[in-house]
Amino acid sequence: MFLLAGLGNPGPKYAGNRHNVGFMALDAICRRHRLAPLRRRFQSLAAEGEIAGEKVIALFPETYMNESGRAVSEAMRFYKIPLDRVFVLHDELDLPPAKVRLKKGGGNAGHNGLRSITAQCGNDYWRVRLGIGHPGDKQMVMPYVLGDFAKSEKGWVDAVCDACADFTDLLAAGRPEEFQNRAHLFLEAQGFSEPKRVGEKG
Known about the structure:
Mean pLDDT: 93
Number of domains: 1
Largest sheet: 7 strands, mixed
């Protein structure tokens, strides 16, 4: 079994925020793979099902971003899921828009959702990093991530979510490098990105 956790803030007020792109990508995965309807469990909205023959639990924590680790740790303990079978989808300021990177462990780059998960669960889980770009001024980070995507960004946001949904079976199958490379080939074909290898920066 493996766990997919999208990071974001709950409720319609935040639904379109850049900070919620993890929720958006996970929603696309749930729809594409026809996971069971969401129900409230583990301080989250959660769906279960199978992807590539592997059982999966998908979590949308309702704890707000800063307490995401409470939800993830509760689900991990209940199902006895090891840390290296946990994949967290989250927004990444340090990547340009429409970039997808995958890494295991590492720093949290000031991301409060990741910081909470690391504190509650340990650090060696997989990060599915979804680039949203940086506003260029540290003082603008908070309003930027809590601002909605512009209409002009819809194309690449949808493409990133589709890439995650299309290739999640590779994560389930234990082929993370192939997931990243296939996602980038997909995005590159649409004019959004270029392929890079797991762990490569930028």
